[in-house]
């Protein structure tokens, strides 16, 4: 059975939001890269929220795309937060040490750093 996924993006005056839901794997990587590139370019410096509400699984390829986006945002004076992080996703990220690198927040918690 093929993986099912939902990717979406929207931009406001404050922040660009990319939503990931379902099963995110290698087949989705090019779409994810394109959405994140657009989100990172929407504001200068970048202000991006990646919403993982409804995410069931994510593979190492997609995680590397998220890490690259986070690194780019920080290197250019911006930020990227990851919201909608439930317990299973947080455990997956912690297993890979990404909970210490990414700015993880539960659903509905988005802060605008100064």
Automatic annotation (TrEMBL):
Pfam families: STAS_2. Gene3D superfamilies: STAS domain. GO terms for molecular function: anti-sigma factor antagonist activity. PROSITE patterns: STAS. InterPro entries: Anti-sigma_ant (IPR003658), MlaB-like_STAS (IPR058548), STAS_dom (IPR002645), STAS_dom_sf (IPR036513). Residues 5-114 form the STAS domain. Belongs to the anti-sigma-factor antagonist family. NCBIfam families: ant_ant_sig. This is Anti-sigma factor antagonist. It comes from Nonomuraea dietziae.
């Amino acid at each position: 059975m093929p993986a099912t996924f939902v990717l979406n993006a929207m931009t406001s005056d404050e922040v660009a939001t990319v939503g990931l839901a379902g099963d995110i794997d290698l087949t989705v990587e090019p779409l994810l890269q394109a959405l994140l590139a657009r989100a990172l370019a929407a504001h200068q410096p970048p202000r991006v929220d990646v919403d993982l509400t409804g995410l069931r699984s994510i593979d190492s390829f997609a995680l590397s795309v998220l890490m690259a986006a986070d690194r780019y945002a920080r290197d250019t004076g911006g930020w990227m937060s990851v919201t909608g992080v439930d317990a299973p996703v947080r455990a997956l990220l912690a297993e890979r040490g990404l909970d210490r690198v990414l700015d993880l927040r539960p659903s509905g918690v988005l802060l605008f750093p100064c």
